[in-house]
Design goal:
Layout: E1 9-11, H1 17-21, H2 38-48, E2 54-57, H3 64-71, E3 75-80, H4 83-98, E4 105-109, E5 127-132, E6 143-145, E7 152-154, H5 180-194, E8 195-205, E9 208-210, E10 213-215, H6 217-227, E11 231-239, E12 242-244, E13 247-249, H7 254-262, E14 273-280
Parallel strand pairs: 1-11, 2-3, 2-5, 3-4, 5-8
Antiparallel strand pairs: 6-7, 8-14, 9-10, 11-14, 12-13
Helix pairs in contact: 2-3, 3-4, 5-6
């Protein structure tokens, strides 16, 4: 299909993430430390796929992409390495069906790095839309408990599995463990293999701070996708803050606010957007 005309800036945070998920996802889904906003998934799916088409998320977590796809009448397949999140994604799909979703979805356990090497062979060259949000390495905020005691952080890890993408080292490990970027490159190569000739690969990511240093994850993804034989079709912006007339309503995490107010990072600005990178195979 051809992409429909779409705004270059998507207001996806008019409601908080909690409100967007309330009643639509199981409460246990909040334990995942890096969930895509449902409204962001909805806008991407509506703009870049048609009813009845297949949407694939190779790193599906608790299934946001899948749930929004089936509510929009699409077919959906999600791949996830961690059994805990696979079970939650499947349960969220069951909830969507119970709520009247007309599409069908499947969450399966697998390693997205094998998309180019045996995983989902039957879909090679046939997927109209691949939509995913890669993990932010080990730089995760998770949830917090505040009160008279010191702040307690929890649900701030994808898992303790050393093979999880988020647990891989920035550089190749001494014991031969691949680096984070090497694994991402393998996943992107697999996505290219599964993508239909006129299909779209959409990756959502934001810059983030690691030990105070700003990491340009969107820029890294663009470079890795180009090396995998994909070309950038569009680069859009998803606002992570609300719009109230001409005013922006920030929705930063607790730790972003804490770091800014403490002055721990000089001249720190709150990140209020997420890049939406749309790739295609070269014509």
């Amino acid at each position: 299909m051809s992409a429909r005309r779409t705004l270059s800036v998507w207001p996806v945070a008019q409601q908080t993430a909690r409100v967007q998920r309330q009643g639509r996802y199981l409460p246990a889904s909040t334990a995942h430390p890096a969930k895509m906003l449902p409204e962001l998934a909805r806008q991407a799916i509506a703009a870049y796929s048609d009813v009845g088409e297949l949407v694939l998320d190779p790193m599906c977590g608790t299934g946001t992409t899948l749930v929004e796809a089936v509510h929009l009448g699409r077919e959906a397949i999600g791949v996830e390495l961690e059994p805990r999140w696979v079970a939650l994604a499947a349960a969220n799909l069951t909830l969507a069906r119970d709520q009247g979703a007309t599409g069908r979805g499947l969450a399966t356990r697998g390693d997205a790095r094998r998309l180019a090497d045996g995983l989902l062979d039957q879909l090679a060259g046939r997927v109209p839309l691949i939509l995913s949000s890669p993990p932010y390495g080990d730089s995760l905020h998770g949830q917090v408990r505040t009160g008279p005691k010191p702040v307690e952080q929890y649900d701030n890890r994808y898992s303790h599995n050393p093979d999880n993408l988020a647990q891989l080292p920035r550089q190749r490990g001494r014991r031969g463990r691949p680096s984070f970027t090497t694994a991402l490159a393998e996943i992107l190569a697999g996505c290219r293999r599964l993508l239909a000739a006129d299909g779209f690969l959409i990756l959502t990511a934001r810059p983030y701070r690691r030990k105070g240093e700003l990491v340009d994850l969107p820029g890294q993804l663009e470079q890795l996708a180009r090396e995998a034989g994909l070309e950038l079709h569009e680069r859009l912006v998803a606002l992570l803050c609300g719009l109230r007339g001409t005013e922006l309503v920030p929705r930063p995490s607790f730790f972003q606010m804490q770091q800014q107010r403490s002055g721990a990072i000089p001249r720190m600005l709150l990140i209020a957007h997420e890049d939406v990178l749309v790739f295609r195979k070269p014509a």
